[in-house]
Every structure is written in structure tokens, then in C-alpha cells.
Model the fold of this input.
Amino acid sequence: MNKTNSQQEQTDQSPVTSSLRLALIAVALTTLADAIATVAALQAIDEAIIDDVKAKQEQKELDEKLEKMQQQIDQLTKEIAKMNMSR
Done:
């Protein structure tokens, strides 16, 4: 009878044990997924920072070109004005 009671107790506890194991696996997978999501978010932040730095550098280069072009326009305007005065 002891064996029967022992087997009955194990049978009764098996579904609980299985469900707890499944719950533990689910928690572990969820934690892993959260870790992966965190890494992905950090990578996205790094990429955004790099893109921002590149955009600022490109804008700086364009501003420098624009400034140089404006200086050339000013110089040409002065030369045209001098030519018109000398006529």
C-alpha cells in the first residue's frame, strides 16, 4: 500500500512539476528575449548617434562650400563693379 500511495503522490505532483518547469522555461526565454531586445536598442542608439555625427559633418562641409561660394560671388561682384566704373 505504501508503494501505491507513493506512486499516487508522484502522479498527483507530476502535472504541477511539469507546469512549473514549463513556467521556468518560459521565464528564462522571456528574460533572454528581453536581453536581446536591450542589445538591439543599444545598437539602434549607437547607429542613431553615428548617423547624427555623419549628418553634422556633411552639413559642416556643405556650409563651408556655401561660404566659399559666397566669397567667390562677392569677389566677382566687386570685380564687375570695378569694371563698370572704369568704363
Observations:
- The mean pLDDT is 89.
- The CA atoms of residues 71 and 77 lie 10 Å apart.
- The two ends are 128 Å apart (CA to CA).
- DSSP finds one helix and no strands in the chain.
